[in-house]
Amino acid sequence: MSELPRHVLIIGGGIVGASCAYALQRTGARVTIVDKGKFGAACSHANCGYICPSHVLPLAEPGAIGRSLRAMVKPNSPFTIKPRLDPALWSWLLGFVRKCNERDMLTSGRALHPILESSLALYRQFIAEEQVQCEWEERGLMFAYKSPAEFEAYGKTNDLLAREFQLPAEKLTGSALREREPALRDDLAGGWFYHDDAHVRPDRLMSELRRLLESRGTVIREQCEFQGFTGDGVSLRGAKCGSEEIVADAFVVAAGAWSPLLQQHLRCKLPIQPGKGYSITMRRPEICPKIPMIFPETRVAVTPFTSGYRLGSTMEFAGYDTTINRSRLKLLRDGAEPYLKEPYCDPVEEEWWGWRPMTYDSLPIIDRAPIAPNVFIAAGHSMLGLTLGAATGKLIAELVNGQTPHVDIAPFRVARFGN
Asked: Which of 59, 179, 207, 391 is 20 to 30 A from 364 (CA-CA)?
């Protein structure tokens, strides 16, 4: 495509779809976003808000299978799989098992590293240029440990990150740890601190993106479900959305965890599983952390916002289950208690869950769809949707515009799944 299409329809109103809209709009395109629910109300609403280039290693790594199996047999494990006859789930799990080796881990990490670095730089540019009020802070990210053995064991991962990706953490113990983060309890073994990570309040970011997009002409259609494309396979001309056809020159599928339900319309396999995560948002406790933190031993994450405080995480493979499992919320509270002087407080402002769009290699799908040359896919960002939003938006704009992508997208091609 030698010229940017006049009108681009984006299917999905989460952070990835909104970021694609923003990047396309800046290149002169007219954009419409459709969402089967509300804009920014799914997984982009109340996640932990990390912009984390430190998260360069995939979930599939050596030892991940053993750790996952051990976790699953524990009561109230942070990682669970709801047993069911679901061929797509078991195919996904098999793909994950095959990726749990050092070679594939490093391959995925090397693919993620440049897009992570690009996204952080693009967010910084976006925040500065647009004066966005989304509680953006660059305070880094702390991995805190209670067990001395677990704390020291992470040193091998840190050495790998420093050697392969130039991402060393600062090792903190004793008074140095307490000085860096006074909200931590005094009996912890230590922490590993990544200086370059940032965080935002996701719902505020989505509100600001909506304001910017609509002020510049983007149309956002909520409660408007995509039902299929119209036109021939050479160049599709429109999409059935709700009760009408929306005519467009190009289409971007950015439907998050819903994307695999659109496979028949795209004529390709999208092995994405909904990985259910939870969060609790409350007012800031009296002894509130300054730094976002992850407690790897309990798989709980903590984010202090200017306007509040959030506990989040857990991973539940339960399909498209829309119920809220209160025992998962209790895990967040219980998992923060061993680490923080004041792990939570009242009142609770929101209890939330969302489906992360999980690929088994932790790499997103950013590519042209097989069905037609004017259809593109931006999906499968796993636990890094917010982090990778800005770079994904720019990459999609480059693909739609026929430009050379600023990051190599070969690892993100849909063909890697055998399409």
From this structure: 207
